[in-house]
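Might I ask for a little of your time on a matter of protein folding? Here, with my thanks, is the record as I have it:
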Amino acid sequence: MPALHQVLIACGLTLAAALASAAEPVKVLYITGGCCHDYESQKAILVPGLESRANLQMTVLHEGGTSLDHRVSIYSQPDWSKGYDVVFHNECFADVKDPEFLQKIVAEHEKGTPAVVMHCAMHCYRVGTDDWFRFCGVTSPGHGKHYAYVAKTIAGHPVLAGLPKEWQLPKDELYYIDKLWPTATPLVEGMSEERKTMQTVIWTNQYGKARVFGTTIGHYPETVRQPEFLDLMTRGTLWAAGKLDADGTPAEGYEATSREPAGAAP
């Protein structure tokens, strides 16, 4: 009987390992493009950087050149987020001012598609309502000069695991935050030289049924390339998808794995 018990335990462990290794990757739609940033370089850093850190499959949709008014094509499709576990917004289209078009974007998230919002995403879709800002979790009207600053942790959260409590950032673009929405939780702040007050730079938000992870950090490729930043964005993406454990490590089956990247969106 003891021998049979050991066999059953071994079989159980083998089955658990097989299930873990067979976990489907978190499918991430990475949307990028627009004004004022080196999105080609950011894409070349972020996509392999995140895929090498967790079981994530990044599909890239890069449109709009350097324009401010491009309408990302997929947003006009019915159920445009279907098939993806997370949408990563790293776009800069502030002059798209059509409220109906914006509703097509945020409706998918309100129904439950998780999101990551990075840097200039906070300045997109200024249609005259607060709909986009409620989704992001913050309202940002702009930014000051470019300078190095210290990002200081003010709350504990699994997405911050391993991040220095005082993280020295190279020259970047510190966004002004006029409003933190009631559904958002600030995690990290930076001191604005212009406003002389702390501005939220990392947070989480709940938008309808969707988790949203946000950061205003990430103007320059030099910042995006930092291991701390890539680790943070990996954890934020996993958290949005519900695949991050309380200690900040990927849930079982979502650790880094070697495979070919997904490539461009159809």
